[in-house]
Amino acid sequence: MQAKDSNPPDGGYGWVVVVSAFMVMGLTVAVLKTFGLFFVEIQQHFDELASTTSWITSVTIAVFHLGAPVASSLCVQYTHRTVVITGGLLAFSGMALGFFGLNMVWMYATTGFLQGLGISFSWTPAISIVSHYFSKKRALANAIASAGECAFAFVFGPFFQWLISQYGWKGALLIIGGIQLNICVCGVLMRPLASSCLLEASHYGTETPPGNGASGRDKEDKSPIMHKTLNWMLVKRPEFVLYAIFGILAAMSFFVPPLFLVPLSYSLGIDESWTASLLSILAMVDFGGRLLCGWYANLHVTKTIHLLAMTITLISTSLMLLPLANSYLSLAIFTGFYGFFFGTTVAIHITVLADVVGMPEFDSALGLFMLIRSTGGFVGPPFAGLIVDMAGDYRASFYMAGATLILSAGFLIILDLLQQRKKRGSKIRTKPEKSTLPYPSLHTLKHQTRRGQDAEENEKLSPCPFHAN
How does DSSP classify residue 323? Predict the structure, then answer.
């Protein structure tokens, strides 16, 4: 299929793509976020420490990020549709093989590695193709798509708890894997607009249309698709480096609260049925935060990076307050605050990346950003688990996550200051050039006047011989 226009349609079939991405987010990241319900079950089954059990989630997160550059590369070589379908099959394989539960190493390889690779191959193309289909409404479209993980997590919390109680944690994994096969259906619906634009641009680049002259070459140069799948030159740009450091620190924190919220509630003596409802509350307010922040960002009232720095600060504050809870009600309230501000952050952080690097570099930057951020996702949960083992209290993990997020907000502030400084510098360099082009300087006027007076006096003293008669 050939695209009719290389510009983002900002609607039309793009909304079908958004709904498909909405489903993919729910069937991938929502499963990862609610995996905390399996944490205690697996820990007790294998009789392992919290830090050892948390490596399952850590491996999933790390492979999820590490696989992003590979997924981005495959999207350019093939299509987003093909990569998403492959991701659905990998996610199913990870859960289905995890059903056997032979030992912890087996769990690392199945529900850790294969599941993480499936999430990466599904999530990365889904979020990428939405950005290609939308330009003016990109923030709103990304917010709606990312809200899928919240909507599904709201249902998955009590549903997974029921599955575990009825079929055990192994049977629950097998059923969840079967549900994840629906990712393949969502992938089929993702019409490859981006790849079609690339093919069309390449065609015009080799065969110039009649009457268009060099316009075929211009179309090839202006194609929104990156020919380089991973542009390592981005690491030489200070803006990208600062945002990547922010991503590392944020990834160290983002996956800690959902993982340790369930064990914390158990330690407070809260019933299992009420514990599952905490994940539903987290998902519900997360959903509202994403949609509200996406709508607000689409108004362009506040600079997106300013909005992101503010939401990160509010998340860290709520995480610092959450360990103060000593009952279900107080825990639910603090969980609600955390979930809402987390939703506002996730709704815009990909949009900020697009603003930092620009859309021509977006596909390559997204893969590279996910690759760099993987270090934070890999280290975060085990580090939090180690702190829990040392302190003997699950509250310590929330303090660690809050402190790390405060540090990450500092890099956003530095990034914004750098962008403002460069913007002011460009204005200062261009202002004198604009002012000197239409008008000569005062020194030039004086010099020209003096030369004119000297020439007039010389003409009076020695008139030109051709005018002598």
Answer: G
CA torsion through residues 429, 431, 437, 440, sign: negative
Task: Phi first, then psi: give them for residue 278, nearest 5 degrees.
Answer: -65, -40
Report the chain's terminal Cα–Cα distance, integer Å.
85
Cα angle value 89/93/94 (rounded, 5°): 120
How many whole angstroms separate alpha carbon 378 and alpha carbon 359? 28
d(C-alpha 22, C-alpha 339), whole Å: 18
**pLDDT tens by residue, 296-330:** 887 888 888 899 999 999 999 999 998 888 888 88
Nearest by Cα to 366 from 197, 234, 178, 196:
234
Q: Distance between CA atoms of 129 and 193, rounded to whole angstroms?
A: 8
Closest by CA to 2, choosing from 181, 249, 195, is 195
CA distances (Å), origin 432, targets 143, 421, 424? 42, 18, 13
- Give the three-class secondary structure for 103: coil
* pTM exceeds cut of 0.85: no
